[in-house]
Amino acid sequence: MPSLGSKLPIYGQESATGRPGADGRARWRSLDELANRALPSPEFPEGAAEPPEGVSRRTFLQLLGASAALASLDACRPPRHKILPYVRPPEKALLPGTAVHYATALAWGGHATGLLVTCVDGRPVKVEGNPDHPSSLGGVGSFELATLLDLYDPRRAKGFKKGQAPVSYRSLLRDLAALAATHEADGGARLRFLTGDLGAPVLVELRRRILARFPRARFTAFESAGADQAYEGARLAFGRPLEVRRKLLEARVILALDDDFLHHGPEALRLAREFAAHREPGAEMNRLYVAEAHHSVTGTSADHRFRMKPSEVLGFARAVAARLASAHGLSELAALGGGETRLGKQAQAVADDLARARGRCLVTAGPRQPAAVHALAHALNAALGNAGKTVEYAPALHDVAAGPGALRELAAELAAGQVDTLVVTAQNPVYAAPADVDLAALLGKAKDSVYLAYRDDETAPRASWVLARSHPFETWGDARAHDGTVSIVQPLIQPLFESLSELELLASFVDLGDAGAYQVLRETWQKRAPGADFEARWERWLAKGVLEGTATPAERAAPDAAAVAAAVEAVPPAAAGIEASFIPDYKLLDGRFAENAWLQELPDPLLKITWDNAAQVSPATAEKLGLENGTRVELRLSGRTVEAAAWVVPGHADDVVTLPLGYGRRRAGPVGTDVGFDAGRLRAAGAPWFAGGLAVAKLGRKKHDFAVTQEHFSMEGREIALAFDRKEWKPEHVAGLRGPVETIQEPVDYQHQQYKWGMAIDLTKCIGCGACSTACQAENNIPVVGKEQVMRSREMHWLRVDRYFEGPPQDPQVVAQPMLCQHCEAAPCEYVCPVNATVHSDEGLNEMVYNRCVGTRYCSNNCPYKVRRFNYLDYRGDLSPTEKMAMNPDVTVRTRGVMEKCTYCVQRIERARIDARVEGRLIRETDFTSACAQACPSRAIVFGNLNDPKSQVSRLHQDERRYDVLHELGTRPRTAYLVRIRNPNPELT
């Protein structure tokens, strides 16, 4: 198909490709588009319009008549129902089809995120954030949302095996008690436990009781993506390991040293909310500086992003300290300055800005940086008067010796034959361990190795006992938030398969196996919080999801400047050449989510790659090495090699190769096996996050095919995502991009309706994390299509997060924009549907009537926002019975040949309407919101009634930053966007 040229024939509008938008900046979505190599491509990628069997469009249209006749019978097959009478009606909460919400928590790396889980007919169907929990504040991330799919995975581990023989639950408890008894004679001298971070109070208590019974036993904590360097940095600075609590509500200037705090870590959801709270262009708008190598979620939200090697972050921080000491009188930092940095001017400007905001600024270091950088960050915060204001310190909540380095002593004991029994509850350590710790060979050295496994993974065949692990939604427990607040973890469904929890396994080593998880948990808390009213408090804890008053109090801590200076000076210089930089993957973390199809198909926040990882390089490094997207390379580091495929990333640091962990699984399951490459095979325990001396060699083979959504559904370069610097922003910039446009159709007036549903999306607050997309998928039963179909542009996400670059490819700025059905009041899709399958409701919603749809796809062709999705296959046919349990019963499961799109969560609207009618009132703003808005951690998405002038969405639609996407087409969208505003430092612009 030839280029559209300067005119768009359908709409008669000029194309904005290659020219600036209303904000005076030209934006591009990929390096190909920037180089004009993408212009001759068709609007939809090749194959997007053809079914996989190769049936032509002409053949498809020939079948139209038959499809119309059969549509009412087979387009959306309704489930069969049986009517069963009640002799005595149950309570409302137990009525079939009634949603009930339960509070619980999930823990990653020993810290909890509070959740509210929606259950229908005794099965969890949706995960939300708990607004009463200090770590989530009502927001939720993709990991928490997608764990629901893991619950119903039919390929989970089932039952218990001792050797190759299956064992019953009761027999297992007897065998474990007998195994524990064999170690009493020597006090557990040859008994070892390999666990994750044990932050849960009940697990900490069980560990204490185990060590009391077996005083010579030892626990080793291992988290492949843990924060051991952060704890060590606190020990260097303060003499003891401490928890660091950041308070962004008080911070106006923030310096992040390789810290992706908006996406990774136990505080990410809360920090995203607090950061976004001061991203409005007022007098108190905060400013964010980020120093990093790869484009992180936090880096894309920065006002200034400084790209550098991971090893150069320390030198940059030292330059900031030197400037603060020499120009601003902070003499306590004089010994910490020095070092070398290429960004001296930038470091001076950052230091000056921090000095102007003393007591209202923050310096934060990421877990990938060495302990010396964390210690230096503590010294900077102390000198700037931030301690107790924007940062607090509290005692460490759990074992601080957790990380790749913690394995080496245990590995040495295994190699020496000093371990008879090894109990493993850590996440798949054979795969996740550093390459120089060969746990695959060492596990066999133990006489008995007991592995609590969620799947039949790489560790399972190496263990002599394999015990199926319970899902967190199936068992009792507790967990601590980042500030120490405790949540009770309660089961939301009976175990789907025979399994055991970590609590039950550890309890069996102190003769509590028969007691059960519930009894052990209750007794633990009866001892910790005794009182006559315990039962009432217990019920309140379960209902609210948090235990009031359990937060760990902050304590005063002053850094030892001499110790910090010694630590900084002791950091060895980086090896010359290219650095390898390892990062937890944005979708799979450390590999524990490799079998989760929702996350595999979720586009990477920046690269937009699905079903893969890539060796990420900058344009300059790619040119130097002769690499292009998909070029196969061999990576060699310290004698270890791995094959990978390259991807060129604008804004990436030069002479760095970023390697996401969590891929290249050899024993994950049908979803995650042989997806991507295993970067962990290059990782060493002594340098778990970055190392110099990486050799990169082209292999000269056929390029790897990536499934990338970045250029799917192109908007042809038109004014879509708008961004301005704070000082240049004027309301006049978007005055012509909102309000009525004269069209040949007379618009319907919905102002006199009780409800006029609409949405507002603030691009300034959006961090581009993708949680909204996962929430939409979970809420609306959106199928997964697989890598092959994604490459054909057939992904089914109703809500996508587009990413736009602006500026030079060496150092561009980024704008993220959630894009979904705009629910246009003059919707182009409705005019072309031959069977009236897409229509308007009385309240102005653009609705899909699935039973009418015959699959002509005319509506998709005529949608200027490219947000309609067509079911090329019957994705429900291969679902197992347990996977079907994950489906939201309020949303129709679509079949092959049906078009679908965002419905503004109409099922939630109708449920709220029913509840309001029963109570004899109107729908309130607080009754419900859309799934994407409820999940958004930064509250960038707001949904509600536009006819209520007091509603937040109505106020945002009147905001001076509001504009309509493709306003010139006159579609009158119900979804409004607010211009992204940046707050750059005038000294650096």
Automatic annotation (TrEMBL):
Region annotation Disordered: where it falls in the sequence: 1-25
One Pfam family this sequence matches: Fer4_7
Domain 4Fe-4S ferredoxin-type: 757-787, 812-843
Source organism superkingdom: Bacteria
UniProt xrefs under SUPFAM superfamilies: 4Fe-4S ferredoxins, ADC-like, Formate dehydrogenase/DMSO reductase, domains 1-3
PROSITE patterns assigned to the protein according to its UniProt record, in alphabetical order: 4FE4S_FER_2
InterPro entries associated with the record: 4Fe4S_Fe-S-bd, Asp_de-COase-like_dom_sf, TAT_var_transloc_signal_dom
Protein name (database record): Molybdopterin oxidoreductase
Organism, as annotated: Anaeromyxobacter diazotrophicus
